[in-house]
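[#protein-structures] MJ: dropping Chitin-binding type-2 domain-containing protein here for a structure pass
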Amino acid sequence: MKKIFLATIALLSLAAYIQTATIVDDGKPECDSLEKMNTTFFRNLFDSTAYWICVELYEPAVMQRCPDQTAFLDSVKSCVQWDDWEWEDIV
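AK: finished. structure tokens for Chitin-binding type-2 domain-containing protein:
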């Protein structure tokens, strides 16, 4: 009985860890400071053809799309042609 109890505790702990480990951030900012309001564009970590913008302080960021045939390049904070786009590490 003790082994079943310990195995159940271990499985529940593993399930809790897996659930918290799979939470993924899409890069959407909180828009909760003037610094973030002054940083014009934020990279969308799920979709390279989109980016986030803070429009109003303490309001959710708004997702914007790049024009067709372009992708958002975080280092230049702009949409660029796919030929000029390359993966950049998340900072």
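MJ: nice. The helical segments are 2-21, 34-38.
AK: one more thing. The two ends are 49 Å apart (CA to CA).
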